[in-house]
Each structure stands twice: as structure tokens, then as C-alpha cells.
Amino acid sequence: MEFENLLTLIKTVSDSELTEFSYEENGSSIHLKKKKETVVVAGNVSDAPVMGFEDTRVAGNTVRKEPDIVQQKSDEPEGQIVKSPLVGTFYAAPSEDAEPFVSVGDQVKKGQTLAIVEAMKLMNEIESDFDGKVAEIYVENGQAVEYGQPLFRIV
Asked: Domain segments of the chain: what residues?
């Protein structure tokens, strides 16, 4: 296979969701595999570096990056988690001297305001996606929160 065709093939695999591809021609073979933005090229190819593929090696020396395995906790708390939809500052109440929107043990309905996250001077109401009881509040009033950070556990 010509080098230009090989580069075109690698680019096509990189742009696709392909997870495995094998090709053999005139005694040379190529094996491409993509997992989590990693492309592994193996087979009877030269040691010449290919642009953008530092982990390309000749078969036998193939480096394969497997996705990190996250073990599920068997003691995960029950219920649904309400996560922060944006980065900002968490506020449990509408103003400093007001009561919090919710406390641990309160019953909540889907759509009910649980808190506010301020981002760039905009106050964004955080609503419950679930009916249930507030089992835990994971953050303190005035604390900075990240996107996807757990805020509440509803059971």
C-alpha cells in the first residue's frame, strides 16, 4: 500500500467511530483500532513516524492504550444525584438573610428550585429532576462548584 493511501486510511479511521479494522495486501498487513481517541497501527509497517501518532509501532512492539477502568462502587448511595449544570458559586437561599430553598429531609417535587448557581453575575436556578426527599446536600453555601459536580441526593 502506498504511503499516501496509508495516511488517508489512518485519517479516515481517526474521523470515524471505527473500533477495529484489518487489511492485508502482498504479505503486508495493517491492523487499526480506535478506543477513546487512540488509534493503534500494527502490522508489517515501517518504523517511520506518522504525523500525530506517537504510539505507532511495528507489530510485536505495539503499544495499546486501553481506556481507564472505573470500578463501580457496590456501596453507592441510593437515590438520584442532582449535579451542577455549570461552573459557578452555589447558593442555598435566594438571599443572605432568607431560609434555604431546601434542607435535608425536605420533600421535593420535580421542577422545584433546590438552589442557585451564580455564573458571570447570572443567577441560575437549579431545579430538581426528581420527586423525592432530600437525603444529602453535598456543597456548602457560597462554595464554588464545577460542571457535573454532585449537589444533592434525592431518594
From this structure: 1-67, 80-154
Report whether pLDDT(38) > 90. no
Contact assessment for residue 12 and residue 23, using Cβ atoms and an 8 Å cutoff: no
Q: Is the pLDDT of residue 32 over 60?
A: yes
67: left (phi over 0), alpha (psi -120 to 50) or beta: beta
Which among 123, 116, 121, 122 has a CA at the least distance from the CA of 84?
A: 116
Q: Which runs of E-coded beta strand occur in 15-148? A: 21-25, 28-35, 38-43, 80-83, 88-91, 107-108, 113-119, 122-127, 132-137, 144-145
* Angstrom distance (rounded) from CA 126 to CA 137: 13
- List C-alpha distances in Å: 57 to 16, 22, 67, 98: 21, 16, 19, 63
What pLDDT sits at residue 4? 75
Integer Rg of the chain from CA = 25
List Cβ neighbours of 2 (8 Å cut-off, separation of 6 or more): none
The mean-pLDDT minimum among 14-18, 34-38, 101-105 falls in 34-38
CATH number for the segment(s) 80-154: 2.40.50.100
